[in-house]
Amino acid sequence: MPQFAQRIGRAQPSAIMQVAEKAKRLKAEGRDIINFSIGVPNFLPGDHIYAAARESLAHDSGQYGSNRGSDALLEAFLAHLEKIGLTGYTVANLASGIGAKQVIYNLAEALLDEGDTIAFAVPYWTSYRDIAAIVNAKVDLLPCPAAQDYKLTPQQLEAALEKKPRVFLFNNPSNPTGMVYGREEIAALADVLVRYPDTWIITDDIYHAMVFDELGYHNFAHARPELRDRLIFVDSLSKTYGMPGWRVGLMAGPESVAKAIATLNSNHITSIPEVVQAAAVAAMAGPQDVPAAKRREFQAKRDQVMDVMDAIPGVVCPRPQGAFYAFPDVSVAFGRVHGPSGLAIADDLTFCSVLLETKGVACVPGSAFGEPRAVRISYTCPTPQLAPGLQRFAEFFAELN
Ligand SMILES: Cc1ncc(COP(=O)(O)O)c(C=O)c1O
């Protein structure tokens, strides 16, 4: 039997998908399951987006497209960037990919040699760790527990940058915590970043349209425009426009980086399909009422989630201000037994599996995000399911001995 490359031994299947699969299986067996596990926005794109896709089909060229993205796609992204105050770019600064995940993967290929370090906060989005492992980079994990609202401090950033990582990867709003950095917090971190010119900065801000409480979205490039020379902003249509399956990711950064991404694309994906690009243009250039309505809906759902979390003794849940996740620290349950079932809860993994078995509620163990004291609740389920799901979550705690 021929050998695999070592690389594949370092890649892990997604822990989130494993929970989602189990929830799906129980549902297929007839169980009443409420799924808080998968991070999908759970709405479909606006009609104008489907209309643009149909129109594109009617005039299909059937050809390969540009490695960087069509002119129309890049122009639409440029205008979209300007709306969030990221100005001064041209299409030469932009590139696209099959979802933000592939864009980030490409960035890792382009910026990290084997053994280079990439630094990021914990909790982190699961794929950061796995992508780093696949390209054989070292990771410097910067712990940001619930006690510090899951947010990175300027002091932590300074200590990390002193070690000269090749890349600092930042995610705002955050998956899994829903935390959003305010204007002053971003400015304080940006002040540190300017002092370390040898580190690339990637801001994975794909949830930037889902910020609540009038907090606004802020990027290091707003605070210190000089950082643009080494800052790469990553965006995606997946969450903002209800298009995770359409697979459109985008980046804006230095021309040299955009060119490197196009070169990598030319050697694997070639291009995003023409019909998808047409739909993406319509999403960014068309009416923004669907994302705006969803932001209001998610903010109301966040309030519902927090009312329940705040009322459970011992559970600590920093208040999310964006995306559609809450990340309660549930470690108060560890070492206890679920009375009615007699099942013991040792850690986040058994917490999630006992909760799913006994209450039919699926959450993702925090260890998938590097924080084993917590679990992730994704609250985009259909509205009628949210209150009963939360009620079962609270009942579960009340039943612990
Ligand atoms: C923080 C973060 N970055 C990137 C992605 C990937 O998004 P896409 O669907 O565009 O690949 C996700 C998806 O869950 C995410 O949560």
UniProtKB/TrEMBL annotation:
<dbReference type="InterPro" id="IPR015424">
    <property type="entry name" value="PyrdxlP-dep_Trfase"/>
</dbReference>
<dbReference type="InterPro" id="IPR004838">
    <property type="entry name" value="NHTrfase_class1_PyrdxlP-BS"/>
</dbReference>
<comment type="similarity">
    <text>Belongs to the class-I pyridoxal-phosphate-dependent aminotransferase family.</text>
</comment>
<dbReference type="InterPro" id="IPR015421">
    <property type="entry name" value="PyrdxlP-dep_Trfase_major"/>
</dbReference>
<feature type="domain" description="Aminotransferase class I/classII large">
    <location>
        <begin position="32"/>
        <end position="392"/>
    </location>
</feature>
<dbReference type="Pfam" id="PF00155">
    <property type="entry name" value="Aminotran_1_2"/>
</dbReference>
<dbReference type="InterPro" id="IPR015422">
    <property type="entry name" value="PyrdxlP-dep_Trfase_small"/>
</dbReference>
<keyword id="KW-0032">Aminotransferase</keyword>
<protein>
    <recommendedName>
        <fullName>Aminotransferase</fullName>
        <ecNumber>2.6.1.-</ecNumber>
    </recommendedName>
</protein>
<dbReference type="GO" id="GO:0006520">
    <property type="term" value="P:amino acid metabolic process"/>
</dbReference>
<keyword id="KW-0663">Pyridoxal phosphate</keyword>
<keyword id="KW-0808">Transferase</keyword>
<dbReference type="InterPro" id="IPR050596">
    <property type="entry name" value="AspAT/PAT-like"/>
</dbReference>
<dbReference type="InterPro" id="IPR004839">
    <property type="entry name" value="Aminotransferase_I/II_large"/>
</dbReference>
<dbReference type="GO" id="GO:0008483">
    <property type="term" value="F:transaminase activity"/>
</dbReference>
<dbReference type="GO" id="GO:0030170">
    <property type="term" value="F:pyridoxal phosphate binding"/>
</dbReference>
